[in-house]
Amino acid sequence: MFENLTNKFEEIFSSLKKAPSLDEKQVDEGLKGIRLALLEADVSLDVVKEFISRVKPKALGQEIIRSTSPGDMVVKIVYDEIVSFLGDKNSEISLNAVPPVPIMLVGLQGSGKTTTTSKLAKFLEKNNKKKVMMASLDVYRPAAQEQLRLLGEQNNIETLPIIEGQLPVDICRRALSAANLNGCEVVLFDTAGRTQIDFQMMNEIKQIETIINPAETILVADSLTGQVAANVAKEFKNTVNLSGIILTRADGDGRGGAALSMKYVAEVPIKFLGVGEKIENFEVFHPDRIANRILGMGDIVSLVEKASEDLDQENLKKTEEKLKKGQFSMEDYLSQLRQMKKMGGIEGIMSFLPGVSKIKSQMDQSGIDEKIITQNEAVILSMTKQERENPKIINGSRKKRIANGSGTDIATINKLLKQFKMMSEMMKKMSKGNMKGMVDKGIPPELFNQLK
Predict the structure, then answer these.
(1) Tell me, what CATH number does 123's domain have?
(2) Residues 384-407, buried b or exposed e (16+ Cβ, 10 A)?
(3) Which candidate, 295, 284, 224, 293, places its Cα nearest to that of 77?
(4) Given 56, 86, 116, which residue is the final one in a domain?
(5) With CB atoms counted within 10 Å of each terminal CB, which end of the chain scores lower, N or C?
(6) Minimal CA–CA distance to 124: which of 193, 188, 49, 66?
(7) What is the pLDDT of residues 87-128, one digit of tens each?
């Protein structure tokens, strides 16, 4: 997400940072670049105008022009305004009501509302320790209710049983009663969507809102639709008591215009991001961290949180013990590759690191892609247990056998063995606490070396 915008901003700020001082012409030139970058990212024109009008007077202030590092000060001003536009701080979902707490999800058809309902349910059960029930009110789209039922069954989330022919208002009353009887603390209502906003849909949503009196009414919007998503948010805001937004398909949105526009247009916070198809691909929206990503500063906090959730802690502990003894086998290397895959692969990890556009450029030049992890995994799995424990014994005939078994060639085997040797040396240094010279701008250079 924000890849295009990040690349543009890094170019603009790189130029500003080189200047020993900034005059009005240079600031205007930089702001012109920012304005164009935002428009190309599909940010609403009104939002772009407001953003520039806030940044410009601060960037032209005497304290900036006389500063010893004026470029850095401009970056700080832009960062603060992006955070302000995105919502200042993350907004938690409100559960301050008598259980079962009703939460209504609204949005257009195709925005990912049903999948998002199950993701939110899983999130609330895991992070808020709440028992959740899901209820589908979509009696119009074929198999919509069945889709939610299957998602509930697959992920062990309680779902209201389907009664054919029942109207949405009657389903609402039955869901609240069933949740009460089953001891559910939260009920998520997946409302029907349409291909576009129409009077009938809005009227039905208002009727449902009156019946269930939701603690939260959350708009589910497709981030890929950019300004359209912002306009949809405005329409829903004018119809119901909208309290928040969930942006879906954020992982496929290289522009990020919807995120920057929606909070300003709808005047409600973005609460979550859908970042993949799996039920766990669901993130809390942190404006300050997103601003860091947009400006190419990385998001190490989110990366650490993601690691603590995705990685096998028991496995990590065993690896740590081995490192303390200066041991590192091909089996450990395989484990590291698999952990990387769990965290979203190379691209997934890189997206959280500072200077992401430069890193991706290096990766492209080196011919690095996600296939390398899978390829290396296949090579290691083609080795015997003895070879994994002691790769030094892998001679010419063994390499040939491993290459045939993994569907690769001897050059690939040699490359992996070289990577492993470098990784082993790095791990030995880490075990001795010798980290000097290993980190450059927040990323170990060996991360690239081991993949080349």
Answers:
(1) 3.40.50.300
(2) eeebbeebeebeeebbebbbeebe
(3) 295
(4) 86
(5) C
(6) 188
(7) 767 778 889 888 999 999 999 888 889 999 999 999 999 999
